[in-house]
Design brief:
There is one protein chain. The chain has about 1100 residues and is of the alpha+beta class. The protein has 33 helices and 40 strands. Strand 36, helix 29 and strand 37 form a beta-alpha-beta unit. The chain is elongated, with a radius of gyration of 56 Å.
């Protein structure tokens, strides 16, 4: 059959050795050997079972269960360290196991955080694992622990636990046996002493004593008792003499019956009783203690009593007083103590004795005090001011209230001390309350107020600064002055993240820091802490073991204490704030916290300053790019109705060139009333349908000027089925629209003069087609070669800045800037492609039309099939552009008016000298004949325009259509456009009226360092009748030279020129040629610059983004006035 412990593993002798050890220990205990002998056998048995890498020991709890004492097992020097180990739930190992009654198993003390204060002890005595098993008595009380130590980390197995259970059970039996034997020895000794003392006590007792035999009546009830023995005091307390051998009824016949009942009960049950009861027949009141003596059948009862008549009356009064005092003593929230002063031979107070303390005393002090203990025994390090305080109260008798700190309890107290008794009384009553919370709250409040005041001062100091280094320098100065330190420095790391230099700082001159330091010189531990973002606090470099190898270096520069606060952002160590002191300094937690706060705030402020600077530069470059392209960008947050316009777009609206955020309705208010509803609908349709925006409209400037804008945008972000954001770009297309309008006007005029001006109109149509194509090509190249390149460059620079951004706010700002630039790039690319598709030049007309067919699916939602006979090729680029635009217009009509979803384009050569485009659809069609195609119907406006332009080029338009049967439109033109006619005589009229004689031409010199703006001005001026640009210059010296050589009538002078400014150049030009009229140009309307130009001799001053009509009118005005 299995026996208990069969499942134990057979370690070092197995179960037999374990049982032999248990038996030996029990026998040793039964033979009366000292307790360490039997417990030592169990220690040896435990180690034999677990192996030589282990040790074991027993620890026993003291009487009050507050501490453990080493019994046997470990060396004496170890026992001296752990003796008195506290028991409690906040303790560890054996202290915790004793408190909870549960095993505490620590596999590795070096990794358990609770063992941190004891790791040095564990290393010194060579153990890593520590298991603590409680020892329970049969009553369930925990009286001690078995501790098992292992040299290596070790996890307790089920077998280890079973072994410990058997050993602790045996130890419990031994401890119980030892306690019983000790109690028996003490009882026997006490009995002998009692017998010796009994007789003298019996005779000398003040209390009365008698031994009685209880007598029973026939019914077995106690009815009398006989005195068997009395002491001398008996007669004094009862008044009865010669009582031995006689019964109480003989002596006092009417003795109270309850006395018989009580003594009879004690004789019968054997339970002693203490009571107070009157003896009416004797006229006395007794305090009695009665108990049975001998076997029950003898019915003998010993009675010890006192006559307490007088005392009882006094006791009643005293009890009432004491009850009141005790109620107050135990119920007050304040601590209370009665102290007795102890003085030396010279009367000096040297100690005090606790005579009485209330229960609150221990709670408020944390000390368990027993009456009779000395104060210096409980508080060996009590401050002198407390003894002086008690001495004053005891000597003078004057009550005194103080608020002061006690180091032993680490608490603040408000204490009221009074002398008890008259002069010379050694007693003092002390009533006190713990005011630590209030005092600490006051200290925290003071510290918080000082800290907040400093941080507010810091914020006020660096807020107006724009330079990051200045911010850092000012922050370090304020920090050093606030905490009175020798050095406060802001160090930034090199790219290798090892070397660091002082970016800014404050020094009082007492410490000599090198210009550059390497972090690796401080040791791997410091580097690891810095890279992990942990603050390093050094109280004294001479005493800190971490810096033993660097002490000489610290002595050289004069540093004894320092704090290093690293800032790690996104895994990179960027900055170290260093605070240094030339003397040892115990840095407070509040000071270290302030260093960390200042480091974060300074870094955030400096990063914000750098980010804002970079963003301003980026925005400036973007504004220049957009201004050069006469383009403005916008974004619209739909739900909040925030329409954000950049400065360039506001310039295109004739408004102040600043960024604004307004409702969309405010933007629409600047649109011509006839176009406003159409534009508003276009915006709403894009939001609802998620489509792109492409609309042309007129805007009315505050001065009444009307300009044409083309607005292209797209939606992004959705909430449900509706877009949440839009963004896009506007470009000024006034010149193009004016050209189209002039063409329309000329076509209308030519209808009435067709006979006489056919050739002129054809030439004009050819020239207009070529001009429109060149203008489209020029705008496309400007967008592609200049605007897009500038935008791409801006995108690159902002992207690089975003990569270097160190704060989340800066990165978010750069991301928004990048998004806006990307939207501008996309809009300019789309517009450039729309103006002149690259395939039209690179691949010819067929490739361009095939591209248009594919793009129509995306832009118009129209599925288009393109076919070609393969022989078609148009060499004339202007003709290719005309046919391409005609096809675009026809496809747009298919979508807008035919409501078709599919169409076809066919490119053919009906004759060797002709090319034909045929666009067909199966849409709604319309009821019309060729002669009915006019401007009145919306579906035929585009057809009319196409027909008229084609007719003037020698071609024609054929239309096949019927309602609900679709349409087929053929556009046929000559393969080559007619050559422009030879120059006409001066009387002939051109597009702008009669040619201006040379003597009436206004000769203009254009001066601007920006090539794009210069070329744009020249283009506009040369198209104006009576204007001729005779020269251009990019700087001041060249402008002065050309003004002398060419003798212009007007000089358009840019104010901001490289090197010599426009103001200086104007002065030089006017000094040499007073007859020249200078008009100043600037990107900004600055009153001071305007005044400087006028003082230099300029007659007018315009902003570059203003209307060209005003500039042209001003040129004519200043020349006519001269």
């Amino acid at each position: 059959m299995p026996t208990p412990g069969d499942h134990l593993r057979p370690l070092n002798g197995g179960l037999t050795a374990l049982l032999r050890g248990q038996r030996e220990a029990l026998e040793t205990a039964m033979n009366g050997q000292p307790l360490p002998a039997s417990l030592g056998i169990l220690v040896r048995t435990t180690v034999e079972q677990l192996g030589p890498e282990t040790r074991a020991a027993f620890y026993l709890a003291n009487e009050d269960g507050t501490a453990l004492h080493h019994a046997v097992g470990m060396p004496d020097d170890y026992a001296a360290v752990v003796d008195g180990f506290r028991i409690g739930p906040e303790s560890l190992a054996c202290g915790l196991a004793t408190a909870t009654g549960e095993p505490v198993l620590t596999t590795d003390v070096m990794t358990d955080p609770r063992w941190e204060p004891w790791r040095e002890v564990a290393q010194r005595f060579d153990y890593r694992g520590c298991w603590s098993f409680p020892i329970r008595t049969t009553t369930g009380n925990v009286v001690g622990t078995l501790a098992i130590y292992s040299r290596q980390p070790r996890e307790a197995t089920e077998q280890d636990r079973e072994l410990a259970s058997l050993i602790t059970h045996t130890a419990s039996v031994i401890l119980s046996r030892h306690k019983e034997a000790e109690a028996r020895r003490q009882a026997e000794h006490a009995l002998r002493q009692s017998e010796e003392k009994y007789r003298s006590l019996f005779d000398s007792l003040d209390e009365g004593f008698c031994l009685i035999e209880v007598l029973l009546d026939a019914a077995g009830r106690a009815s009398d008792y006989r005195f068997l023995e009395t002491n001398p005091a008996f007669a004094r307390h009862t008044g009865l003499k010669d009582a031995v051998g006689r019964t109480i009824r003989e002596l006092v016949p009417d003795h109270d019956a309850h006395w018989f009942e009580i003594y009879g009960e004690i004789a019968r049950t054997g339970e002693p009783r203490r009571f107070e009861m009157p003896a009416e027949a004797l006229g006395r009141f007794y305090d009695v203690y009665a108990f049975r003596v001998g076997p029950p059948h003898e019915r003998r009862v010993a009675v010890l009593f006192n006559d307490i008549n007088d005392r009882r009356r006094a006791d009643i009064a005293l009890r009432e007083s004491e009850e009141k005092y005790r109620l107050l003593f135990e119920s007050i929230n304040e601590g209370f103590a009665i102290l007795e002063t102890i003085r030396d031979d010279r009367g000096r107070l040297v100690d005090l004795v606790y005579r009485e303390v209330n229960p609150v005393f221990a709670r408020l002090t944390g000390f368990q005090v027993q009456p009779g203990q000395r104060v210096l025994e409980v508080l060996p390090d009590i401050e002198d001011h407390w003894l002086a305080y008690y001495d004053r109260v005891s000597s003078t008798g004057v009550p005194e209230v103080v608020e002061d700190y006690n180091r032993d309890s680490d608490r603040w107290y408000r204490t009221n001390a009074n002398r008890v008794g008259g002069a010379g009384s050694p007693l003092i009553s002390v009533v006190f309350e713990d005011i630590s919370v209030r005092k600490r709250a006051e200290a925290v409040l003071r510290g918080t107020q000082e800290r907040q005041a400093f941080l507010l001062r810091l914020s006020d100091a660096i807020r107006p600064l724009n330079d990051a280094v200045e911010m850092q320098r000012e922050a370090m100065r304020l920090l050093a002055e606030h905490l009175k330190v020798a050095v406060a420095s802001y160090f930034e790391l090199d790219s290798d993240e090892d070397g660091f230099v002082q970016a800014a700082g404050y020094e009082d001159g007492s410490i000599r820091l090198p210009d550059r330091m390497r972090m690796s010189d401080y040791g791997a531990d410091i580097v690891a802490n810095y890279r992990a973002g942990r603050t390093i606090v050094v109280v004294d470099t001479e005493a800190d073991p971490r810096f033993e190898s660097q002490r000489e270096a610290y002595r050289t520069i004069g540093v004894r204490a320092w704090v290093g606060v690293p800032l790690v952002k996104e895994g990179r160590l960027l900055v170290v704030l260093g605070v240094l002191e030339r003397t040892p300094r115990d840095w407070s937690g509040a000071e270290v916290q302030l260093f960390e706060e200042v480091a974060e705030r300074t870094w955030a402020a400096a990063e914000r300053a750098r980010t804002e600077t970079a963003l301003r530069e980026s925005e400036s470059r973007l504004r220049l790019a957009l201004a050069a392209a006469r383009m403005g960008i916008w974004s619209w947050e739909v739900s909040g109705d925030d329409h954000v316009r950049d400065a360039n777009l506001n310039r295109l609206l004739g408004l102040e060139p600043v960024q604004t955020t307004r409702p969309l309705s405010e933007f629409l208010s600047h649109i011509h009333p006839e176009d406003r509803t159409r534009v508003a609908d276009a915006f709403q349709n894009s939001v609802r349908q998620g489509g792109s925006l492409d609309v042309e409209f007129r805007v009315v400037w505050p001065d009444g000027t009307v300009r044409w804008l083309r607005d292209q945008g797209d939606v992004f972000g959705t909430a449900g089925e509706q877009a949440t954001h839009m963004a896009g770009a506007c470009v000024d297309v006034t010149e193009r629209r004016e050209a189209v309008d002039r063409l329309r006007e000329l076509n209308t005029t030519l209808e009435s003069r067709v006979e006489e001006r056919t050739e002129s109109l054809r030439a004009l149509a050819v020239e207009l087609a070529r001009t429109e194509h060149r203008e489209r090509r020029r705008l496309s190249h400007v967008l592609h070669d200049h605007v897009q390149q500038l935008l791409v460059a801006a995108n690159l620079h902002v992207g690089l800045a975003a990569m270097d951004a160190r704060s989340p706010d800066a990165k978010q700002s750069f991301d928004r800037a990048l998004a806006v630039i990307q939207e501008a790039i996309q809009a300019s690319r789309s517009l450039a492609v729309e103006l002149i598709p690259p395939l039209l030049d690179d691949g010819g007309l067929a490739a361009g039309l095939e591209w248009l067919a594919k793009r129509s699916r995306d832009n118009l939602g129209l599925k288009v099939q393109f076919t070609s006979d393969g022989t078609t090729d148009v060499e004339d680029a202007d003709l290719r552009a005309l046919l391409f635009q005609a096809t675009q217009e026809l496809l747009l009509n298919v979508v807008k008016h035919a409501k078709a979803t599919e169409a076809s384009i066919r490119l053919t050569r009906p004759a060797a000298d002709q090319v034909r485009i045929e666009v067909a659809d199966r849409g709604a069609g319309f009821r019309s004949r060729p002669t009915e195609i006019h401007r009145g119907s919306p579906e035929s406006f585009g057809l009319f325009s196409i027909r008229e332009r084609v007719r003037h080029l020698g071609g024609g338009v054929e239309i096949e259509t019927a309602p609900e049967r679709g349409s087929r439109i053929r556009v046929t033109v000559p393969v080559k456009l007619p050559e422009p006619p030879p120059p006409v005589t001066p009387a002939a009229r051109g597009p702008h009226g009669p040619e201006t004689p040379e003597e009436n031409v206004i000769r203009i010199l254009v001066v601007d360092d920006h090539k794009i703006l210069r070329e744009g001005l020249i283009f506009v001026l040369n198209r104006e009748p009576g204007f001729k640009v005779i020269g251009e210059a990019a700087d001041g010296p060249r402008a002065i030279e050309l003004a002398g050589e060419l003798a212009p009538d007007v000089v358009l002078m840019d104010v901001s020129l490289p090197g010599m400014t426009g103001v200086a150049a104007t002065q030089r030009v006017m000094a040499a040629s007073p007859e020249v009229r200078v008009i100043g140009l600037s990107a900004h309307d600055d009153p001071s610059v305007r005044q400087a130009m006028r003082e230099a001799g300029a007659v007018e001053y315009f902003t570059k983004g203003g209307p060209s009509a005003q500039l042209i009118a001003s040129i004519r005005s200043v020349v006519s006035q001269s």
